[in-house]
Amino acid sequence: MELIFIGTEQGVGGISEPTGLSTNLASRLRSLINLSPVMLFMKGKPGEPKCGFSLKVVEILKQEKVDFQSFDIQSDDEVRQGLKVFSNLCSYPQLYIKGELIGGSDIVLEMQKNGELKRILAEKGIIKKETLEDRLKSLISSSPVMIFMKGTPDAPRCGFSSKVVNALREDGVSFGSVDILTDDEVRQGLKVFSNWPTFPQLYYKGELIGGCDIVLELRNNGELKATLSE
């Protein structure tokens, strides 16, 4: 991912004229905001942030694999003060997507946690929209040992899920889990993705091991822990 520090004004505008700013300054700010589809006004540069809040937003954008450009507000006090009026936001960093203010570090972090940032980036055409297959692959790979079950490990909602959880725990295997009863898209999609119509489904390093009968057979043969640690 290429990170570019920008210190000149070019581009087109898309935000209404605020009060209290000269026409020239408002035009310059508008141009800077629209200089890149994703524009970050921060303290310092992406490779050398000058505050923890700016660093956090840079890290989030890197995690989301977003190409962005930035402007160091410490290098230009006119932009630093003017943008506070223009955006009606008095702190930095400030993140803009397609000319629209998203917010500062707290808002960006919260949006990343709840998936809203990824959704906006996809809607704006910044990143590719996640397909169901992408989502399933991500869930399957979220832990080396992953069980898709009915209920949770501490409160299974079917006997087969309970048996698999007990087998894993008795063999001392750490695992992640997804309750397919809470997400019908995952429940139905995984049946097709894995070509396995029932639950629970146990995966190791992204590969399907099988359901309850196979897991119990592996355990009875003394092969379960070895299979899940190869």
Oligomer: single chain
Q: Portion of residues in helices?
A: 40-55%
The number of helical runs is 10
Radius of gyration: 24 Å
Order of helices and strands: EHEEEHEHEEHHHEEEHEHEEHH
Write a structural description.
- With 230 residues, the protein is of the alpha/beta class.
- The chain is 42% helix and 20% strand.
- The chain has ten helices and 13 strands.
- α7 (159-170) packs parallel to α9.
Topology:
Blueprint: E1 3-5, H1 23-33, E2 38-42, E3 44-45, E4 48-49, H2 52-63, E5 68-72, H3 77-87, E6 94-97, E7 100-103, H4 105-114, H5 116-123, H6 132-140, E8 145-149, E9 151-152, E10 155-156, H7 159-170, E11 176-179, H8 184-194, E12 201-204, E13 207-210, H9 212-220, H10 224-227
Parallel strand pairs: 1-5, 2-5, 8-11
Antiparallel strand pairs: 2-6, 3-4, 6-7, 8-12, 9-10, 12-13
